[in-house]
Amino acid sequence: MDQTTTVDVLVVGAGFSGLGTVIKLTEDGFDDVIVVERGADVGGTWRDNSYPGAACDVPSHLYSYSFALNPGWSRAFSPQGEIYDYIRRVTHDAGVREKIRFGVEVTSARFDESRGRWTVGTTAGEFDARVLVLGVGALCEPRLPEIDGIGDFAGPVFHTARWDHSVPLAGRRVAVIGTGASAIQVVPSIAPTVEHLDVYQRTAPWVLPRIDRQYPGFERALYRRVPGLQRAVRALQYASREFQVVGLTRTRAALAPIKAIGRAHLAMSVRDPGLRAKLTPNFEIGCKRILLSNAWYRALTRQNVDVVTTPISRVTEGGIVTSDGAEHPADVLVVATGFHVTDSPFFERVRDASGRTLADKWASEGMEAYKGTTVAGYPNLFVLMGPATGLGHSSMIYMIESQLNYLVDAMRSMRDRGLQTVEVREAVQNAYNRELRENTGETVWVTGCKSWYLDAKGNAPAVWPDFTFSYRNQTRDFDLSAYRRTTIDEAAAAPTVQGALR
Predict the structure, then answer these.
(1) CA–CA distances in Å: residue 1 to residues 6, 59, 489
(2) For residue range 38-69, what is the model confidence (pLDDT) as tens digits?
(3) What tens digit of pLDDT does each residue of 441-455 get?
(4) Cα separation of 321 and 315, whole Å?
(5) Counting Cβ atoms within 10 Å, is residue 300 exposed (0-12), middle (13-18) or buried (19+)?
(6) What are 60-63's contacts with CB under 8 Å, separation 24+?
């Protein structure tokens, strides 16, 4: 535990972000890279979220690395197990598994200005790294509800992202709190087997039909033998998804056809007018993530399922009491209340040279970064899936690969120019985020609903407010002029600041 490991690049997390980082850096000749992963395997979100019915809501051909297409997807929308297998296969094929240290959790990280390096504490000892890359992901820290008495519940309680597969649900009374992306997959999967299911809904989501199908063997064979065909399908899926950006960021009229589909889907699926009224969204479509399911509404019409819209007052030993005084007995409590996205506890562990945490900085100044990747005051820190990079319509892997372009080019610039550190100028970061806020102010995400896109200040730092190809263009090359940088004077062995006045 007293050992210190010196490394050029330390990557935190072995999900799509961290794995992509080590693959792309290794391809470009950066061999001194270590990935630390708190879990026992790669996969991140797709390792942890193994709840019944877990699947992707982005088309399969679009939800993969562009440099590692998978012609063997079984369905138009991949189930969790296939994505998890895909990530493990890519890790093996790229030959980077030996660079990953599993079961290692980062407990602290602080920048040492005198040396221009990061000191990173972990459960397996200390790391001394020149560059620190955070690939921890936006959906890694489950958000638990603050409900009075939840600790007194006598039965099992677990979050969908920490599903307890040892708990049998058949023939039992189950309560599911939440109606977001996880809940609409869990509920239809468990409803046929449980004795009774109460679904606690605070806000009815917009749900569209899921245009899913199984890929027959001959189609998968075509994708294997004609790689260009899969890339063409991928391009069409990308373009169709990008069309939604017009409605999300520019004119609400473009969302009218999507809204009509959602209303028709609800009307055709739920005949009971009382239940249909409960399930009718009361906010602008797109303000929260649009969900996809063919089974959600049907599950809620089952005789053994009740949708509870009365607010929860408290949890007791034997169930849930709502604000109207009604008692709802339950044997198992499933929490589907999302994640800490704009307030991840991990950012409390990352400190600048003065000791200020990234969490404190973002809480007081707003969650901001430059191009979603670098942060003023934190040299040589690269945050993947950082502020203003999230999407409500398409594949996050596209955004991750855009950031990887930027990161790898930054490493090339540092190598070619002999730089010890790079740190984005605060004025540059501020100007970039002023423009982002101006663009976000006209988007659907700030029309009044409460969602994980928003921070405590009411801004929407979790989402990119434009076409994704515009972000790709911004991050194609590392713009060194936007950064303060230092180099090590070998004779004096002290940092010399370059470009501080320019």
Answers:
(1) 14, 44, 33
(2) 999 999 999 999 999 999 999 999 999 999 99
(3) 778 888 777 776 777
(4) 6
(5) buried
(6) 61/230, 61/233, 61/234, 61/237, 62/234, 62/237, 62/238, 62/241, 62/394, 62/395, 62/397, 62/398, 63/395, 63/397
